[in-house]
Amino acid sequence: MKFFYLPLFVFASALFLVSCSDDEPELVPVEIDIFNDLSAPQEGGQGQPITGPFTKFNLATGQVTTSETAWDLAFRGTTIIINGGVETGIADEPARTGDAAVYIANGTMSSIAEVDVTLFRQDDSTGPAIPGGSDNGWYNYSGPPTFLITPLAGKILVMRTHDGNNYAKLEILSYYKGAPDSPDATMDEGRHYTFNYVYNPNDNVTTF
Amino acid sequence: MKALHILLLTLLFVQTVCAQHGFELDSSLIVDEVIVTATRQKKALTKVPSRSVVITSESIESSGALRLSDILNEQTGLITVPDFGGGEGIQMQGMDSEYVLIMIDGTPIVGRTAGTLDLSRITVQDIEQIEIIKGASSSLYGNEALGGVINVITKSAEQRSRHTNVRARYGSQAIMDLSLSSAVKFNNLIVDGQINYYRNNGFDLRPDVPGVDVNPFHNITSQIRASYHVNDSWRSSLTARFFDQHQKLNFDGSEGESTIDEYNLTWKLSGELSSRTSLHVEMYNTNYQAQESLQTSGGVTQLSFFDQTFTRPELRILHELSDAYALTGGSGVTIEQLSRSSFAGDPEFISPYAYLQVEAQPTAVTDITVGLRYDDHSEYQDQLSPKLGIKHVFTDKLSGHLSIGYGYKAPAFRQLYFDFTNSTVGYTVLGTAAALDRLESLSEQGGIINQLYSTAELTQALEPETSRSVNLGVNVYPTDGIKITLNAYRNDISNLIDTRVIARKTNGQNVFSYYNANQVRTQGVEMDLSVKSLDSPWKFALGYQYLEAKDLDVQQRFEHGEVFARESTTSPSFQLNSGDYFGLFNRSPHMVNVRVDYDWTELGLHANVRGTYRSSFGLFDTNSNGVLDRYDDLVSGYMVWDLTINKNLGDDTRLAVGVDNALDFTNAQFIPNIPGRLFYTSVQFKL
């Protein structure tokens, strides 16, 4: 029986060698990161027009940025826009300079293993690609009596970055400063995003 | 003046002399209970082929209940749950208040807040009995009788003419209840009436939080009726009932007042056309008006009003074909109008209907009822509601029943005509008939950024909600004095109306409207055990209900692995399995009620202890998936114990002391309708 394994071993070794050959760059492993308390203030609301600058985020650097071009997604209150498509028509939104795209997948961070590029959407004049409003996109608004904004369970934002070359997945965990376990909308400060994300630094690789 | 006093005194004297007997405490008087709600004519409860319950006046009086909510809460499988509007609605076999028809003397009560009919509006002083039919009953009652029917039967003119009844109760929370009923007889005319005053100073379970849980309120219910016996076989009556409630409002920084004015007018004529045929004519008109004014700290006064009128003439003929077969046929028209704040217009519904019911007794031990009702509707698709009921007595120790029925509920006015925008948050709710016009005007003003459904989808008419219900059960009498009832039930509800987002506004908020969404199933088992014996002073009753209430679409999402949850708000999501679905919000899988009565005849003492248990239930989703699953934080189960001691002084006076919620259970956060421990004392005279 031992003889039977020998060819398999040779074949597997060959595969290993091929994938490590100099023709193709070695894949950089992806890792899961967490970003705490991204501050996304807004002015207005409560029936008044919402204004104020968006807080922009770059997935490759894992940092908040003020760059007008090198950003992937941006936050203001519960609204999330992406650097791809065209302006939606809301006040104070940044110009779209990149080719970012997004869709919301149902699953967990570990179960979403591959990007389905056919599902991608970009911001357009009908609204952001990530829909706003309770239960439409990423959050639920409980209304009275608790008035809580809670990220929906099982909603993973799958993204293409602004340069159109890389892919990422992101799960929002909290909308309140310090990501408290049992947030209280009257006590805890809102408009602070905590999220898990995985950025794949390998160009055009659609798996995680 | 002197003559009038003498006349009144004489009347009173005559009454006292004529008074038959006082309190029917004697448990040896086992009367075969009679129910009218099941077939629209008096029928022995043991022969009724549907799942029916009768709560007797003695049971109500000896438990010290004041409002309909108090007594229903102690019945097997029934629970009153608080609504966000502050009302207490009934939940029956897992179905909400909006699917249960509430009647007084066979005529429907209107005035629902978001579908909930507040049962604390109805006094149970001086009523004869409460009749409950579980399961769809639209074959006789049409709209709203989707989950069941509760009919409060007030004392008849003849009963009131036996004695004048005075009752006063006072207790904790400054709750005061005063009741008087009497009757005067002039030859063929009896005029009888009842007046009830109820006051409650409210309560505050959380003194540290601004505002109170229940603001002080008081109300008056009065009923006056003139009954005239034309001759031996024809009689006519005119009944007027009035309800009037005032409540001072004091929320955090806002003050105001809320009032309810309601009247019900009924004219009845009934008589015999032949020895086997009788005719009943009924004209019913009711109006419910609620107003609320609230002055906020900013000096702005918010006014809201609600004005609903319901009119229904009905003609009914009962005909006995033979001793074994009887027909009931009826026809009428329901006219409903509503005018309220935040409404697009003053809508009117007109719904003519006709029904036919056959009662057959093919053998001495089998009763079969077949019914069919047709309802036309000015706004909705017409409805055909059948029902079949069979009761069979197998032996003197065992009988069984099966009832299969169809029920429907036409969409409420608000689901068509609501036009409401929340002034602080900015979302909008639109009825389906108002939606399209309003969306267009919002778009023109630049207030809409995205309409999510096509015009065709938005103009699709709402369909009535419908249900199919099955009740199958047995009554077992193993030995004298012991009765066991088992009933299995299932209600399948289709076209349940829910809200969905139809458009997004530039302010980031949503526009909601109504649509026919879900399939819901409630099913379970009810069990009743009662033990009473002629020679024992003890009586014992135990009730239990098991309930599963599930949205079948949600169940499917669980099965397909599309539902996720978080352990805590900040932990990553994980997938749930089909067994993790807990069911609908605010439903307890297990409910138990127990009652023990003790009669100490020599001392004229009667005491009872009543307990109600409700197992844990979910009010909100706490792990961000919009549905209830076993990882959600549930509200813990609880038990409430009540105790009443009655003491008879002679035949005509009864004293009582009692304590409700003796163990002082409260849950300020999640169960705001249960105040703490309440003591009370009452006195009752029969003159």
Tag the structure with descriptive keywords.
heterodimer; A: 208 residues; mainly beta; five-stranded antiparallel beta sheet; four-stranded antiparallel beta sheet; 13 strands; 9% helix; B: 687 residues; 22-stranded antiparallel β-barrel; five-stranded mixed beta sheet; 9 helices; 10% helix; globular
Describe the protein in words.
- The complex is a heterodimer of chains A (208) and B (687).
- Chain A has one helix spanning 2-19, and strands at 31-39, 43-45, 48-51, 55-58, 63-65, 73-76, 79-82, 101-106, 139-141, 149-151, 155-160, 167-174, 192-200.
- With 208 residues, chain A is mainly β.
- In chain A, strands 1-13-12-11-8 form a 5-stranded antiparallel sheet, with no helix packed on it. In chain A, strands 5-4-6-7 form a 4-stranded antiparallel sheet, with no helix packed on it. In chain A, strands 2-3 form a two-stranded antiparallel ribbon.
- The longest helix of chain A is centred in the N-terminal third of the chain and has 18 residues, at 2-19.
- In chain B, 10% of the residues lie in helices and 54% in strands.
- Chain B is built from 9 helices and 36 strands.
- Chain B is globular, with a radius of gyration of 26 Å.
- In chain B, 40% of the residues are buried.
- The chains are: A mainly beta (208), B mainly beta (687).
- The interface between A and B is large, with 47 and 33 residues.
Helices and strands, with pairings:
The complex is a heterodimer of chains A (208) and B (687).
Chain A: H1 2-19, E1 31-39, E2 43-45, E3 48-51, E4 55-58, E5 63-65, E6 73-76, E7 79-82, E8 101-106, E9 139-141, E10 149-151, E11 155-160, E12 167-174, E13 192-200
Antiparallel strand pairs in A: 1-13, 2-3, 4-5, 4-6, 6-7, 8-11, 9-10, 11-12, 12-13
Chain B: H1 2-18, E1 34-35, E2 43-44, E3 51-56, H2 57-62, H3 68-72, E4 78-82, E5 88-92, E6 100-104, E7 107-108, E8 127-134, H4 138-141, E9 148-154, H5 157-162, E10 165-171, E11 175-186, E12 189-200, E13 217-229, E14 235-251, E15 254-274, E16 277-295, E17 301-320, E18 325-340, E19 348-363, E20 366-375, E21 383-395, E22 398-409, H6 413-417, E23 419-421, E24 428-430, H7 432-444, E25 448-451, H8 455-458, E26 465-476, E27 482-505, E28 510-532, E29 538-551, H9 552-559, E30 564-566, E31 573-575, E32 590-600, E33 605-614, E34 638-649, E35 653-660, E36 678-686
